[in-house]
Amino acid sequence: MCGKGPQAAAVTSLTRYTLRAAALHDADPVKVLTTLNTVLHERYASGEARYCTAIFGVLRPGGDHVSVHLASGGHPAALIQRADGSADFLPTPGGMLIGALPHAQFTPAHAQLSAGDTLLLYTDGLTEARTGPTRELYGDDALRTFTAAQPPAGPQALITALTALLTSFGDGLDDDTALLALGMPAPLATPVGEDRT
């Protein structure tokens, strides 16, 4: 979100309600962000420019997996922690800031979450935190490495680990940070000697 205070709160409110209304009409993530871009650009074109980044997605359960369809407008890429312990970004290159231009392009992305996988959404306050004696940016690579080092124990465990990481940054955390993790539950272990067939 561009700015702080009452003006930023007004943009946040307009963004939230526009996303909800647009998704009711057509839940395609690119179309939803396109509608939001039109609303923000028209609302603030004659005054001080207001814009934001956003990521919007739809989850569709499909038996043993969940299909993720999302689009990004200038927002950090989602990160997927897999049940096998790997972690990688769901790329959304080229997604433009929302509200800055009359005709912005948004980038769609698709993935599947299988049992034990976790999808992480976060704001750039996390990757732009300053760390170490030279106050270097924490960065995307460090976030991927940190996430891959965490046991794949589900969304709550990942949020707990990231919250501790954010706390460790101390005054290196200059910007507000939001985290959201969604997961596909891992199957329950079958006790020894029990047959579930």
Describe, in plain words, how this protein is organized in 3D:
Helices cover 31% and strands 24% of the residues. With 197 residues, the chain is an alpha+beta fold. The strands form 3 sheets. It has a 4-stranded antiparallel beta sheet. A 3-stranded antiparallel beta sheet has the order 1-2-5.
Brief descriptors of the model:
three-stranded antiparallel β-sheet; 4 helices; 9 strands; 197 residues; single chain; four-stranded antiparallel β-sheet; alpha+beta; globular
Mean pLDDT across residues: 89
The coarse overall form would be: globular
- Gyration radius (Cα, Å) is 19 Å
Query: Order of strands side by side in the largest beta sheet?
Result: 4-3-6-9
Uncertain residue ranges: none
| Pattern of helices and strands | HHEEEEEEEEHHE
Largest sheet: 4 strands, antiparallel
In whole angstroms, the N-to-C terminal distance is 52 Å
Give the oligomeric state. Answer: single chain
Question: In a nutshell, what does this entry contain?
Answer:
By secondary structure, the protein is an alpha+beta fold. The protein contains four helices and nine strands, in the order H-H-E-E-E-E-E-E-E-E-H-H-E.
List the SSEs and their pairings:
Blueprint: H1 5-25, H2 29-44, E1 54-61, E2 65-73, E3 78-81, E4 87-90, E5 107-114, E6 118-122, E7 130-131, E8 136-137, H3 139-149, H4 155-168, E9 179-183
Antiparallel strand pairs: 1-2, 2-5, 3-4, 3-6, 6-9, 7-8
Helix pairs in contact: 1-2
